[in-house]
Amino acid sequence: MVFVAACDREHRPERSSAVETTSIVGTSSIAAGSTGAYEDSLMDALFPGDTALTRGGDTLVELGGGSINDGYYVGQYRKNSTRYAKIERFVGYRPDGKRAILLTLLRFPLPVMDSTQWLMYGGMCGVNDTSDVNVLAIAVNNDDSVYRNISHAWRFDRAKVTLSEIPTANVVCWNQGGED
């Protein structure tokens, strides 16, 4: 499995699960509320690759994540067989000062992806060959410096705290060195 970015154990952000929020992905409303807050609280202790079992019997697997700029983060996890992404915002540090506290703003299920597809973000994608930190995309890794085979793309609107699917025709992502 490939991770675009992951936080290391020493500086891994903590998720804040105390606040319930609602966000829009396209035309679907997705609440980061009680179930999401409970899942976030379980995943708060997990590092990429770690697994937790919920009280309802669901399996959560932390897949990692990284910064998209200015205190915003993208995280990925799997709940049973469904892969999700979530956008979080930095809200402060724990009293020990070592770990960030992140507030989940929205979460959404990702389409089924094979081992050649990566969720890319943090300025690694853009429109019309211009990098844009607010564009997330699923790109096929073809070992080239530019990925043009984009299956899905979204734009995060920070002011409205929404994520909208955008046409993939002019979306590109850049290979940042590649990992496997």
General description of the model:
With 180 residues, this protein is mostly beta strands. It is built from 1 helix and 16 strands. A hairpin with a 2-residue loop joins strand 2 (22-25) and strand 3. The chain is globular, with a radius of gyration of 16 Å. The chain starts with 13 loop residues before the first strand and ends in a 6-residue tail after the last strand. 30% of the residues are buried. Residues 1-33 have low confidence and may be disordered.
- The total tally of domains equals 2
Strand order of the largest sheet: 1-8-7-6-5-4
Question: What structural class do helix, strand and pairing data support?
Answer: mainly beta
**Tally of helical segments:** 1
Q: In angstroms, what separates the terminal alpha carbons?
A: 7 Å
Largest sheet: 6 strands, mixed
Mean pLDDT: 81
Number of strands: 16
Q: Runs with pLDDT <50, length 5+?
A: 1-33
Query: In sequence order, what are the helices and strands, one letter per element?
Result: EEEHEEEEEEEEEEEEE
Q: Approximately how much beta-strand content do the residues carry?
A: over 45%
Radius of gyration: 16 Å
Q: Percent range for helical residues? A: under 10%
The global form is: globular
